[in-house]
User: Fold this.
Amino acid sequence: MTQFRPTTALLSLALLASASGASLYWAARLAPKPEAPAPSPAPPVPRRRPMLVLEASWYGEPHHGRRTASGETFDQWALTAAHRTLPFGTRLRLRCRTGGPAVVVRVNDRGPYARDHKRRFTRDLDLSRAAAERLGFLQHGLALVQVEVLPERSSHGRP
Assistant:
């Protein structure tokens, strides 16, 4: 009679398990997992300048050739604007809310000072005749415009 040996029994169980595919299961579970590639950095988000919506009017002939608040001579055919608080020389990109082309103007005057019956200012921006013409509200006289304040130009002439 043969004697029972535990090592032989374990060895035969291991052979039986490997033949059944169990070792592949455990080999896959215990194998080191490949390291996932590092996520690529997100593309930089371009910084948007804040957009304002202002009510604009235009002024022309009666003021043409007169001095502006900045000391310049007003030219109704130049792309300029008047605003009550923006610094002189500030460049603004304007577009009518109804669509159409964009126009870049430079603040060189103060105003507008039109008020309603409650003495509140009714308009925010006065544009030269040329700017109003390009924006397409010369006939209407008033328009809501999207305003984007552009950065100052560097000494090289580029923003």
